[in-house]
Amino acid sequence: MKIVSYCRVSTVRQGESGLGLEAQRNAIRTYAASCGGVILEEFVEVESGKASKNRPKLLAALHQAKITGSVLVIAKLDRLSRNAAFLLTLRDSGVRFIAADMPNANDLTVGIMALVAEQEREAISKRTKEALKAYKDRGAKLGNPNGAAALRRAGKGNEAGVRAIKERADSHAADLRPVLAELDAAGINSLGGIAKALNERRIQTPRGKSWHKTSVSNLLARLAV
Predict the structure, then answer these.
(1) pTM
(2) Can you tell me the distance from the alpha carbon of 56 to that of 59, in angstroms, rounded to the nearest whole number?
(3) Residue 23: in which H helix or E strand, if any?
(4) Is 12 helix (H, G, I), strand (E, B) or coil?
(5) Which tens digits make up the pLDDT trace of 185-206?
(6) Torsion of CA 78, 79, 82, 87, to 10 degrees
(7) How many whole angstroms separate alpha carbon 181 and alpha carbon 189?
(8) Is the Cβ–Cβ distance between 76 and 63 less than 8 Å?
(9) Which residues form the domain of 177?
């Protein structure tokens, strides 16, 4: 198992002193050892209460886990459980994550917490729909009467799947753009050299495979569009 480690401390002082940080590291290392995992990289977030919504290291950790096909591992679930928006982002990111203190319950727990947030959204949506219905019952007209016809004329249904695949490939390519720039700065710009470097970094293709000259060529062509 490939692991990307994410630790968080709540204040600058804690970040500088290491207060609580080493305990998180030890928990993640212990988990990695228990499952034969290899920690590829560690990300440490230092945030204040006021900046709790701004987590650049978390975004970087998710990005690294995504491009390397790794699992994001944190020490304690409560480190990331207080922000419903984050949970929904994590759920939709496609990155698997594990809490070292609850390794067997992480997926279910995150799903439940995300569901609670979703239920709140649905409650708001329901109240909005009820208000719109009451507005319509009073004789008001809602929406564009030609909207459905326009969608049918567009005939986009059969193209949705192909478009989704292309969008995922484009997104993966965009994620790798800074990595390619770094390799280019280091003088690694041949197809074979790039493929070798990406494989050494354990970065996968969009289909989770190893890189070859052909796949690197396709990647560069996609980024050049």
Answers:
(1) 0.58
(2) 5
(3) helix 21-34
(4) helix
(5) 889 989 999 999 999 888 988 8
(6) -100
(7) 9
(8) no
(9) 168-224
